[in-house]
């Protein structure tokens, strides 16, 4: 059966229903965490949804980059917030709704990349709270994942459009372009069971033409850098903002690990000991990133390996491991790998029963951790 036929069959409708059901279930879990946080703290919905970076994006939406520290953030989400505000929608609530919808769009792309299991595992990610609020993760994943899907289909003109949006959403757009460049040069990549097959390109002239499309998102990124230069007079304004606002300096990986280990000491955060747990998870996320890159190499998915590895390296040289937990959401090869593992069917009734029990426990643990993480964010505690 052809790919087109498979994608218009009852099987596709069944997968669509499963993805929507998983999306709704995870949103209900985080919605319950939101209601509990509001009840415990007396916060309004807009206030509970508007913590941490949401405030930065709203400030950019209203005042632009008047504060040099805000240059650490990219303009796509503030543009959306400004539009929402113009039509009378509160920015924190409107951006949360946009993120919710974008997460569903991203999940459908994940199904194309790695099959149904990969999409559901992505929705079950414990740090998924960042896809329910005015953060860039959901928007980036929606455009980046679909850019990768379209690259696998050979639709490089649309890849350039979506990658350009990604480059205006967060710095991860640069890494996406790098990964897509590798995909163009290698002429395709392996396909896991249940995913949409990738088109293979044998001609080097066609590979180079595909690669040339990526000049477009790089030009968009360069234009944003020039814009920041006109405001600040410095070419390193983004790095300067990271340094001023988040103490991020060029640091060796071992020193970054040492600094992060120090941050896992609860005594360092006497009034908010949960911060120590978040930094512990940052270390776990770095390890997951390394394993994901290695897994991609084993699968001979060279472009995916490069996409993840360069991000892991970037996180390892910035004072301490910070925001890596959120970056897990961007690493679609991670969920492709986990989804592929879940798709394996063990032999024997006992083995299948044990496997089902283990998967059930893992799902329950993921949902409990998701609830805990979401409640932390909604209460205004540090959540990565």
Can you describe this structure in just a few lines?
This protein is mainly α.
Give an overview in words.
The protein has one domain. Residues 1-6 have low confidence and may be disordered. It has helices at 3-7, 10-41, 45-48, 53-63, 76-86, 91-114, 116-123, 137-153, 156-167, 172-186, 204-212, 215-232, 237-246, 253-263, 274-298, 302-316, 324-327, 332-342, 349-378. The N and C termini lie far apart (45 Å). The protein is mostly helical. Helix 6 runs parallel beside helix 8 (137-153), helix 9 packs parallel to helix 12 and helix 10 runs antiparallel to helix 11 (204-212). The protein is built from 19 helices and no strands. Its EC number is 2.4.1.-. The chain crosses the membrane at residues 17-38, 87-109, 121-150, 156-187, 208-229, 277-298, 305-323, 329-344, 356-374.
């Amino acid at each position: 059966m052809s790919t087109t036929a498979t994608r218009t069959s009852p099987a596709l409708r069944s997968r669509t229903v499963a993805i929507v059901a998983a999306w709704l279930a995870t949103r209900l879990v985080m919605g319950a965490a939101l209601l509990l946080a509001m009840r415990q703290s007396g916060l309004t919905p807009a206030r509970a949804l508007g913590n941490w970076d949401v405030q930065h994006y709203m400030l950019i939406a209203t005042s632009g980059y008047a504060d040099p520290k805000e240059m650490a953030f990219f303009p796509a989400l503030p543009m959306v917030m400004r539009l929402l505000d113009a039509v009378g929608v509160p920015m924190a609530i409107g951006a949360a709704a946009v993120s919710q919808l974008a997460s569903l769009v991203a999940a459908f792309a994940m199904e194309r990349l790695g099959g149904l299991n990969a999409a559901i595992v992505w929705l079950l990610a414990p740090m998924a709270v960042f896809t329910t609020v005015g953060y860039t993760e959901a928007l980036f994943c929606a455009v980046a994942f679909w850019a990768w899907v379209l690259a696998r289909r050979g639709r490089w003109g649309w890849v350039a459009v979506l990658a350009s949006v990604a480059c205006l959403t967060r710095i991860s757009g640069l890494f996406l372009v790098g990964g897509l460049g590798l995909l163009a040069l290698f002429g395709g990549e392996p396909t896991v069971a249940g995913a949409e097959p990738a088109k293979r390109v044998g001609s080097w002239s066609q590979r180079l033409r595909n690669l040339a499309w990526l000049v477009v998102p790089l030009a968009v990124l360069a234009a944003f850098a020039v814009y920041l230069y006109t405001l600040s007079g410095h070419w390193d304004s983004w790095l300067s903002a990271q340094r001023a606002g988040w103490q991020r300096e060029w640091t060796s990986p071992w020193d970054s690990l040492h600094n992060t280990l120090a941050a896992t000491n609860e005594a360092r955060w006497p009034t908010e000991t949960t911060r120590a747990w978040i930094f512990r998870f940052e270390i776990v996320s770095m390890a997951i990133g390394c394993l994901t890159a290695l897994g991609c190499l084993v699968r001979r998915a060279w472009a995916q390996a490069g996409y993840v590895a360069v991000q892991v390296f970037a996180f390892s040289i910035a004072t301490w491991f910070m925001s890596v937990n959120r970056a897990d959401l961007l690493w679609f090869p991670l969920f492709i790998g986990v989804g592929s593992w879940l798709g394996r069917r063990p032999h024997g009734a006992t083995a299948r029963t044990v496997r089902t029990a283990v998967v059930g426990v893992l799902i329950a643990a993921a949902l409990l951790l998701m609830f805990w993480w979401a409640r932390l964010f909604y209460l205004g505690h540090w959540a990565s």
